[in-house]
Specification:
The complex is a heterodimer of chains A (234) and B (382). Chain A has 234 residues and is α/β, with parallel strands linked by helices. Helices cover 32% and strands 28% of the residues of chain A. In chain B, strand 7 (155-159) and strand 8 (168-175) form a beta hairpin. Classes of the chains: A alpha/beta (234), B alpha+beta (382).
Chain lengths: 234, 382
């Protein structure tokens, strides 16, 4: 693997069977994403964007091809190794936030730290800091149902960054948000990339969201297309 | 796992009503199991005391409800190994009313032999003499006297139910000792009240042996002696007699086992359904936890942990309920048996059953949750 490359895919394929039909989700994808990149993957529904994100996160496995993430060949890892690797290296932001409804914002953000050796006071302190970074230092004890959609997504981002991962994967992070909230979330992701050096891979079908990324590529029917969109960072 | 206790607790509070109902259902099941174990312990768990081991009881071979001729007394007394012999008739009757707190057993006996047979009973000499001298005298156990507030010299009337006779007694002796929950009166007084025919038969003979080693030979000799008589006998140890008394209602062990199995099975089904439902509606969250890096083992532990907490809470509640009810019921049960309480091994068994059912019922949902692929879990709706 080349130095400075965060993610390297070579001839990556993903097939699965749905109701007796074979579906090719990703077809021969070859792609490098540099460390510190804000990379946007666009495409229509069913194009394979989320599948690609799942493979990078190690929550699904490729059918063929090679996939290196941060120098590790994650296709060869056991489920347990993958879980540990993911908790240390990947932060994941879902479209539907996926916060645990019975936990407060603070507890939701602290959750990934339960997999570390940190003591509870340290975990809580880190979770507070993460929430302050996303501007929710005053919403620590709020339950998800007491937050707006934009706030929930910011909690989800705090949860993704609390373990200080090198890569943050965001799957349609603005898909459920109004324009103002979407802008807030995208600004936070931009800050994390620009000021904290996080490599960010964002999947979206919203061209306005894509403008926040430095590089964009288009995926259609599982195949990668060339595409360049103007970036707000240019 | 300790770090995840917090998450387990939060998950249990997610649907508080369901968790509380499951705890209550588990506690009622544990209470029923505990009650069965208390009955089992009372019937089969008590140790045979040295004094009790020296006693045999001879009854009619066919049934306890059939009486034996009084004249068997002299024949049994002549058997080698028999030291004393006590004819006994259970009287029944009602003291004040039918309320459980007023119940205590009453036996017509030979007042001269009584305390030679039951040597573990301690009674002051002057009280013994007063009891033996007074035809209407009654000797009662201290536990009855304490429970009913009876005292020496007090007169009581028992209303006959089986027998058409309402005897009046004066309490002449209060004895102390293990199982001092009985009362005794003169056999002659019963005979007077019911007529001479009543004196020709007795319910049972209690035999005191010279030594424990004589038990089987004496029992065999008694039964052999009356094998071809119109009223054949069955002689057994005092402990076996007590169990035979209970087994009149059927095969008690099988009965207890059947009910216990049914309860455990029902408990398992209810608990399994609850856990399956609870896990199913959190499938997506399980996917999120795994995405955050929680390994399958932790997810397994979370689900099993929830079931274990519910089971143990239900177990504690059930055991407390059992101890409370058995303590309250002990006063009634004392008519027939002592030791109606949940024994320590029963407490352990209750917790083991509760925990076993909890873990058993959640094993499948937990394994399914642990095995669920993240992408499938995240796709789950509903």
């Amino acid at each position: 693997m080349n130095s400075g490359i965060a993610i390297s895919m070579r001839n990556l394929c993903k097939e699965y069977t749905r109701e007796e039909f074979k579906v090719v989700a990703l077809d021969d994808i070859t792609l490098d994403i540099a460390e510190g990149e804000f990379f946007c993957l666009m495409g229509p529904s069913g194009s394979g964007k989320s599948t690609l994100l799942h493979l990078v996160a190690g929550i699904d496995r490729p059918t063929s091809g090679s996939l290196g993430v941060l120098g590790a060949d994650i296709a060869d890892m056991t489920d347990r190794e993958l879980a540990r690797w993911r908790s240390e290296n990947i932060g994941y932001v879902f479209q539907t936030f996926n916060l645990i409804p019975v936990l407060t914002a603070w507890e939701n953000v602290e959750l990934p730290l339960q997999l570390t050796h940190l003591k509870r006071p340290d975990r809580l302190e880190r979770a507070r800091t993460a929430l302050e970074i996303v501007g929710l230092g005053d919403r620590l004890d709020h339950l998800p149902k007491q937050l707006s959609g934009g706030q929930e997504q910011r909690v989800a981002i705090a949860r993704a960054l609390v373990t200080d991962p090198a890569i943050i994967l965001a799957d349609e992070p603005t898909g459920e948000l109004d324009a103002a909230s979407a802008n807030e979330v995208l600004s936070i992701l931009t800050t994390l990339n620009r000021d904290h050096g996080k490599t960010i891979i964002m999947v979206t079908h919203d061209p306005r969201a894509a403008r926040f990324a430095r590089t964009s590529r288009y995926l259609d029917k599982g195949r990668m297309m060339e595409m360049q969109t103007p970036s707000v960072m240019d | 796992m300790g770090k995840h206790l917090f998450l387990i607790w939060k998950n249990l509070r997610r649907n508080a009503r369901r968790s509380i109902l499951t705890v209550i259902s588990t506690s009622i099941s544990v209470f029923l199991i505990g009650s069965l174990l208390s009955v089992y312990g009372m019937l089969y768990g008590s140790e045979v005391r040295e004094e009790s081991a020296l006693r045999l009881v001879t009854r009619h071979k066919v049934s306890l409800t059939q009486a034996l001729p009084y004249h068997y007394r002299s024949k049994i007394a002549a058997i080698d190994g028999v030291e004393n012999l006590l004819p006994m008739n259970w009287f029944g009757g009602v003291y004040i009313d039918q309320k459980p707190e007023h119940m205590f057993p009453r036996f017509a006996v030979d007042q001269e032999e009584l305390f030679d047979i039951y040597r573990e009973y301690e009674v002051p000499a002057e009280q013994l003499e007063a009891f033996q001298r007074d035809r209407q005298g009654m000797a009662i156990g201290k536990s009855i006297a304490d429970r009913l507030g009876l005292r020496l010299g007090q007169r009581i009337t028992i209303k006959g139910d089986i027998y058409p006779f309402d005897p009046e007694f004066t309490i002449r002796a209060i004895f102390e000792g293990p199982d001092d929950f009985n009362s005794f009166f003169h056999f002659k007084y019963l005979e007077e009240g019911l007529g001479p025919e009543a004196g020709s038969h007795v319910g049972v003979f209690t035999i005191r042996l010279r030594s424990v080693e004589d038990a089987s030979s004496v029992a065999r000799a008694v039964d052999e002696m009356f094998r071809n008589a119109p009223e054949p006998t069955k002689t057994e140890t005092e402990a076996a007699f007590a169990l035979a008394f209970v087994s009149q209602i059927g095969n008690v062990k099988l009965f207890l086992l059947s009910i216990g199995t049914a309860i455990v099975f029902t408990m398992l089904m209810v608990s399994a359904n609850t856990m399956a439902m609870s896990v199913r509606e959190r499938t997506r969250e399980i996917g999120v936890l795994k995405t955050l890096g929680f390994p399958s083992g932790s997810v397994l532990g979370l689900v099993l942990g929830e079931a274990a907490v519910i089971s143990l809470l239900g177990g504690v509640l059930g055991v407390v309920l059992t101890l409370g009810v058995t303590t309250a019921m002990a006063g009634v049960m004392v008519q027939f048996f002592t030791g109606f309480t949940l024994p320590s091994w029963g407490v352990v068994a209750c917790f083991a059953v509760a925990l076993g059912v909890g873990l058993g019922s959640s094993a499948v949902p937990a394994a399914v949750a642990a095995r669920t692929r993240i992408v499938d879990a995240l796709r789950h709706t509903g």
